[in-house]
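# nightly structure sweep
# worker-07 picked up a monomer target from the shared queue
# config: single-sequence mode, recycle default, output format = structure tokens
# input follows
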Amino acid sequence: MSSKLSVVIITFNEERNIAKCIESVQLVADEILVVDSLSTDKTKTIAESLGARVIEHAFEGHIQQKNWAKNQAQFEFVLSLDADEMLTPELVEEIRNQKEMDFPFAAYTMPRLNFVGDRSVKTCGWYPDRKLRLWRAKDGNWTGINPHDKLKMNMGFDQKRLNGDLLHYSYTNASEILSKSRKYGKIGAENNKNMSWFNLIFKLFFSAGTKFVRNYLFKNGYKEGKLGIIICWGQLIETNSKYLGAIKLKIKNR
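# output follows
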């Protein structure tokens, strides 16, 4: 008898994406749990119509929301997704095979393929963008610094690398890259304001420029033409906003 799997999705006003996300996991999920942070659109209605269990929970941060959500899951193994992500058939088949073997590993990573509109991007440091998203829930928790969460396993657990892509429809168009970069930079500033002065100044002057050069030149961002410039510039904006903003908050709170 194979193990059962809970797919956990956090949402807020995701009526544009939630159906595709849920439909992509239906062949592998024994439970689809949507934790919604009080959406004002049709997210909840669409999710419930596709068989998902929906729980509403006020948003306290990406890391806090994902940890709370995984603790509501019914089954031992959890696959955590954002609403703008979906599994490829290849990834579904790999997960089904592992499920039939009772998940012999405690955790599974998968490459994530990011999109701008309908265009996939494998340059700019965006691919394979490998993520740990499937794991035995009691053996790992979400950590990191908001808004960039990271799943961390307890020590001593083996991980398996899956090969099928997790598709991430992160931006509807190029202009959205820059607006989200500013938004994430602002969130990052608030969550980095307690970093030391030395680290903040060092990262402000060296991290942003280094990242731009690395991703545009050495990670082949230039091959994307104008889009590559926008993506790498957005990365620079987010990094600058995060550390400069944290410095300003630090000065304000002195």
